[in-house]
Amino acid sequence: MLHVGDATGSDRHNSSGESNQERTIHVEPIYEAFLCPLTKKVMQDPVTIDTGCTFERVEIEKWFKKCRDNGKKITCPFTSQEIKSTTLNPSFALKNTIEEWRKRNEASQLEFIHRSLSPGNSESDILRALKYVQDICQRGKSQKHIMLAEEVVPMVSVMLKNGSEDIRCQALKTLRIIAEEDKDCEEAMVVGDTIRTIVKFLTYDTSPARGEAVSLLFELSKIESLSEKIGGVNGSILFLVGIACSNSENVSLVQQAEKTLENIEKCEKNVFQLAENGRLKLLLKLLLEGSEVSQLSMVSLLGDLILINESKVLVSQEAGSFLVGVMRSGSLQAKEAALSTLSHISSYKPSAIILIEKGILPPLVRNLFSFGSNQLPMKLKEVSATVLANIISSGVDFETIPLDHNQTLVSEDIIHNLLHLISNTGPAIECKLVQVLVELTSSPATVQNIVVAIKNSGATISLIQFIEAPQRELRIASIKLLQNISPYMNRELAEALCSTAGQLTGLIKIIFDEDGITEEQAAAVGLLANLPERDLRLTLQLLNEEAFSVIISKVRKIRQGVTRGGRFVTPYLEGLVRILSRITYALEDEPRTVTFAREHNLAILFSDLLQVNGLDSIQIVSALALENMSRQTEHLIRISKNPDPGFFCKFFPCLSSSQTMTGICEVHHGNCSIMDNFCLVEGKVLGKLIACLDHTNEKMVEAALAALCTLLEDGVDIHKGVCLLCEAEGIKPIFDILVENRTENLRKRSIWAIERILRLEDIACEISGDLRISTALVEAFRHSDYQTKQIAEKALKLIDRLPNFSGIFQTTG
Predict the structure, then answer these.
(1) d(Cα 507, Cα 512) in Å, to the nearest integer?
(2) 663: β partners
(3) Where is each U-box domain found (predicted)?
(4) Which of 33, 254, 356, 401 has the fewest Cβ atoms within 10 angstroms?
């Protein structure tokens, strides 16, 4: 039987669409005897078995093995007869006949290939020709070499630029088949820009051509000279890395891309292209194992690369010790290259920690502080300072990491050297070293060491002067440093700011300079807020600079949503409110502050700020400010009752101005208002303060209670104060504070208030039966300090838990 369609490879429905070439090509048909009964394919190595049937050698051997493995009798797969002997007899005559048939057909196919693989032919002819090339080359190397000799490879390469996607895809597949396991063919197909054209197919995300291109590049990359050419094509490694790192469902594609990259890594000339795309294996190998020249080159290359964080960790792990060694004892040129690399990789916290483990700190500090003939050029000291700043930001406990002479990074001598270097170098190094101090003072474990060194070295003035530095980064770093140390040396900083010309003005200018809210402004506000709130000199200077007026405007704009500041708005607003509260600590000593508070309705502003939910510090500061202002109410009422009329008003009463009062206050027994004498009662603030007594933050509760206690102090009508608290439902929360006993300060404050509340006989009578409260008072009487015991004793007497004649402690006034 003849199989004409199979022999020609043409479609069976080719009556109307077949080209002239298809009709004229002469191909001998396939004879039935040529086909293996098992595979229905033309045999390569025909053999005959006992039954006289002929099969492909490999296929019949598989059949025999399958029978044995299954424990069955060996039979003929064609006749099912049992076979006694498995001897295979080669059919040389049939094999020769098939070979001659193939050669005749290949000649016809070659003629068709030459005619079809040229511009102007139909798509079907080109695809058929490419299929012929694939079939021929799959028969063995000798057929591939025929394709080479017939110059078919360049013709196929031209098809890579064809307008048809199907043709381009089949051309890639054809080239891959030609290249498989044949070095001669691989080298022949990369003439001209063929590799560049192949690489372009890697950009086709969804096209089958992309997979064929990767497979072809994998075959070509097996030859070192070709892998160099592949790596030299711009974008080739990047595209391959993208495919190898993708989450594609095509696992084979990903694996082939990775294997191609591994082949490319075997060529040293590809080191730069690989490294800049994150493939550092070859670079690190040359760095650690190469010649001295190669090592220096690789270090320099590392310094020029922009590494992702994962690569920074890899370099630190693999080459950290080598780089530290170069920094310790390498040539000046090598140190420069190593420092450049270290400045990059140390910027990522995990890699910085690895470098610390590799011993980077001692040589780094040594190089930074070296002087004389061995000192580094200032340019390299700047890079060393950058590395040190990166290392410090890792957050490691530097008290446990030894440097030279049994010192650590927070030893006083080391800090002195840093401060000396800051004072005697340029802005770039100054900035980095100040950043080092910023990081060290950010840790509670090391800040005290730095504060002691700054005090002993007298560096406060020098650091404050950086507030006016023209370099923004240096200015920000210095302000953050001053903010960090301000809780530990706030008096020294306040004195220095008030004593040095222009520094306080400069700080205020930074705070109010821009419409937005920057990191620099937030740090400047934080610094000023940490200074002693009772420092009258500083408060008056701020008042003279009109800082408080601007602060009020800023606070209101932030509250109204006019000013937005992203992640810095919260610390900025908190700092502004803390600075503004300074006014309330100066009310007793400076009349101008009273005038300012009245003119700007300060008590109302703080009352509103009590309701800023989620910002505990602002609520606490506001409550404390209201306490300060409320303490002045009685004093201001006395002044208003007997004002100094002035010289002219004594003779002309009509010239005196009347004050705006809202009514007679029950607690203060005077004309009170929230604006003029800061009366909490007339300002309707009691409800807001009482609401804060249920807060989870003990500091907030303490501040609110302290403000409420101003209505129970000597000098006011305590009876009326208690009644107002009772009407506002504020009595029970105060008793609850005592019972809960959350902190000692809260217990003291609540006992003081409760003793005064219990002076009202009705309340005392009601509370006397509450075992919880009496028990809490007894505990305070037994375990508190002397003064609190006395107050608790009075409270217990008021609820008849102690007889009046059994006073244990002396009565105090």
Answers:
(1) 9
(2) 672
(3) 29-108
(4) 33
Helices (H), 468-601: 472-485, 490-499, 503-512, 519-530, 536-544, 547-560, 569-580, 582-585, 591-599
Give the tens place of pLDDT for each residue, 277-300. 888 999 999 999 989 899 999 999
CATH of domain 32-106: 3.30.40.10
Produce one character per residue of 425-449: b if its CB has 16 or more CB atoms within 10 Å, e if not.
beebbbbbbbbbbbbbbbbeebbeb
Q: Do 32-106 and 721-806 come out as alike in CATH topology?
A: no
Minimum mean pLDDT range among 82-86, 260-264, 607-611, 709-713: 82-86
- The Cβ of residue 812 has, within 10 Å, a number of other Cβ atoms equal to 8
Closest CA to 479 of 511, 517, 513, 527: 527
Whether residue 468 contacts residue 502, with contact meaning beta carbons closer than 8 Å, is answered with yes
Q: Where are the domains of the chain?
A: 32-106, 721-806
Residue 572, pLDDT above cutoff 70: yes
Paired residues of 2 in beta bridges? 31
What's the pLDDT score for residue 648? 43
How many alpha carbons fall within 13 Å on the CB side of residue 158? 12
* Those residues with Cβ within 8 angstroms of residue 350's Cβ, 6 or more apart along the chain or in another chain: 309, 312, 313, 316
Asked if 197 and 156 count as a contact pair (C-beta separation under 8 A), the reply is no
Q: Identify the pLDDT of residue 663.
A: 57
Identify the three-state secondary structure at position 163: coil
**Domain 721-806 bears CATH identifier 3.40.1350:** no
State the DSSP code for 590: -
Residue 59 neighbours by CB under 8 Å, 6+ apart: 36, 38, 39
Taking CA atoms, 73 is separated from 77, 82, 86, 665, 720, in Å, by: 12, 7, 11, 117, 115
pLDDT reported for residue 250: 83
Report the half-sphere exposure of 132 (CA within 13 A, side-chain side): 32
pLDDT, mean over the chain: 87
Three-class DSSP labels, 655-706: HCCCCCCCEECCCCCCEECCCCCCCCCCCCCHHHHHHHCCCCCHHHHHHHHH
Half-sphere exposure of 108 (CA within 13 A, CB side): 18
Which residues are 54's β-sheet partners? 48
Give residue 518's region: left, alpha or beta (phi > 0; psi -120 to 50): beta
81: Cα separation from own chain's centroid: 75
Orientation of helix 569-580 relative to helix 519-530, angle to 10°: 30
**Is 46 strand, coil or helix?**
strand
Strand, helix or coil for residue 38: coil
Q: Which amino acid is at 193?
A: D
Measured between alpha carbons, how far is residue 708 from residues 50, 353, 749 in Å?
114, 52, 11
Gap between the Cα atoms of 105 and 198, Å rounded: 31
Helix (H, G, I), strand (E, B) or coil at 757: helix
Contact 617, 580 (CB under 8 A): no
Task: Give residue-wise pLDDT tens across range 153-186.
Answer: 889 999 999 989 999 999 999 999 988 887 777 7
Give, in degrees to the nearest 5, the angle at Cα 364 between 361 and 365: 85
pLDDT for res 25: 62
617/266 Cα distance (integer angstroms): 62
Tens-digit pLDDT profile for residues 247-283: 877 888 999 999 999 999 998 889 988 998 888 999 9
Task: Specify which residues 671 forms β-bridges with.
Answer: 664
Tell me 52's DSSP state: S
The DSSP secondary structure of 109-147, one letter per residue, reads HHHHHHHHSSTT--HHHHHHHHHHHHHHHTT-HHHHHHH
Please state, in angstroms and rounded to a whole number, the distance separating the CA atoms of residues 159 and 128. Answer: 13
**pTM of the full predicted structure?**
0.72
